[in-house]
Design a protein that fits this description.
Layout lengths: L13 E9 L6 E5 L5 E4 L5 H16 L6 E5 L5 E7 L3 H10 L4
């Protein structure tokens, strides 16, 4: 066997979204998109796992994907999160987020 290291992956593609949560809101909504591309989302949930579960449910609804396609990959216990959405292009995700931007 060779000593060469291989980087293997499952070949799935998708979008990554930087999200900043505003907890304890009256309702769930996309509040704004910051200059750096971070999406500010207001959520009615107040803490911990409730926020992550509600975020996944809300994103599933506005992006039209199943909750199982959404994963919080960084910031699980923070207001700043990195979310991965499988099988959704960045362009489609951006379009759907903008369509749901509160006016």
């Amino acid at each position: 066997m060779s000593d060469r290291n291989f980087h293997l992956h499952d070949g799935q593609t998708g979008a990554a979204l930087a999200i900043r949560i505003i907890p304890r809101a009256k309702s769930n909504q996309v509040a704004e998109i910051l200059n750096d591309g971070t999406i500010r989302i207001r959520l009615a949930a107040s803490s911990g796992d409730d926020v992550n579960s509600e975020l996944k449910a809300y994103l599933s609804n506005i992006l039209g994907v199943s909750e199982s396609a959404i994963d919080v990959v960084a910031g699980e216990n923070s207001r700043d999160k990195l979310v991965s959405i499988l099988n959704l292009s960045s362009e489609t995700a951006q379009k759907k987020v903008i369509e749901n931007l509160s006016k």
